[in-house]
Please model this.
Amino acid sequence: MMPWLGPKRSFLKNCCANGCRYHRRIKTKPTMPNPTILLLPVETKTREFLAKIFFAGHAARRGFTALLGCARFFHANTPRFPRGIVMENDISVGSTTRLPELRRLGFGVAAWDEEALVVKNDPYYVDERVRPEALYACHKFFTRGSGDLEAIATRYPLARGHMTPAGNPRLDILEPQYRHLHRHTAIQSDRPILLVNSRFSHSNPFHMSPEAFRKALLARSGLSGQALEFKIGYMDYTDKLYSFFKEMVAQLPARFPDHLVVIRPHPSENPNVWNAIAEEHENCICSKKHTATEWSMAAVATIHNGCTTALEAALLGCRVLAYCPTTSGSYDVQLPNAISEQYDNTFEMFAALEHMHIPSDVERDALSTAARHRVAPQIAGLSGCTATDHILDELESLRWTTPIAPRELLRAVRCLARYWRQESAVALRIRNNTNALQAIMTPYALEKFPGATMEEVRGILDGFGMHDVLAEDMGNWWFRMVRA
Model:
């Protein structure tokens, strides 16, 4: 197995003479692969952070050393981390190089797809989100359920033995006993809240124009033939839906002057359109603070179309409304809409909202139970064994510390050489008074992961009742969790 290769200190001596913040990082000695180390990169904080701390805490209780933190920092500094099992966030086109590289560097590779909980249909999910290079690099891939597993196995039959239907820990933390963790004391309003969750990152992208985004997305998608036609048709459909959705949202504040309308854009959306609507009304705000579930728990109702956050809200026992002014059997994201009250016009939806109130605990129990019965056939882990327990059972028995073939070893050495060249360039930027994390965190990356503190991690662990799990701040938004 490949040994640890440390940095050439001469490259960094000017930067590190006084122990700079950037290189005061993961404090590990050179290690060989360790099956009890589990690494959990977090890509989008509001989406994953709570669930991955829950998962890490349970892993620590089983004897794992769980390391959790900013995915971008991990991907920029992978050779510095101790070799263990990495739980990645997807097997899409962006992972085609990264996951094979992790294996060459001596890591175990497992993954679930954070975008797989709700899809348009399973065959197209495979077209859009599953790349064979990334899939075959995984020692184990955890699917949402049997539907996506069969769709993947039909396309890539050799991968069947390396897949397990498990669900996602994000749904484990929506059990009734954890509802209190989704109530944020900072969300205070003397008016009833109407929450609008937008998921139109294709039509309203964060960091470029819609036209440029579409061109770039189609170019890097690798799709062709019918799959490409479907993608183009889907993007045209969501553009149309986005236009209708904006018109509805613009009407809400004036129609409900005694309510506070909260617009929560997708992390990959540009908030400017929604800010413009909010600025026209004193009872409307656009906010990316707090998680979607925290806002849903404080709201009279959550309004959406085809959004994963609606699935989470419904499982928590919140009232969920799907605004569907136009529909398509091919392009609609069916499951979130199916567990919602559906309206095809604003007149009927606004009339229904007039009579709604924040659900009581008894009402939440009934709403949550109904949603679980509706969702359980499609998503594993909602009845019986939880997704967290199922995944950890598999990881405990995973055998991944096998010798690397000579050709792969050579590629690993090239990867390390490339990393240390980049490292010396980063050190030069820091020496020239550039903040360490700014060297790798773009504005878009900070939008997705704006940082984390030890107080946050400790508070979440205590909220889950995991007082027997010790947590340590490792720096650079990474944390270590072990059993006390």
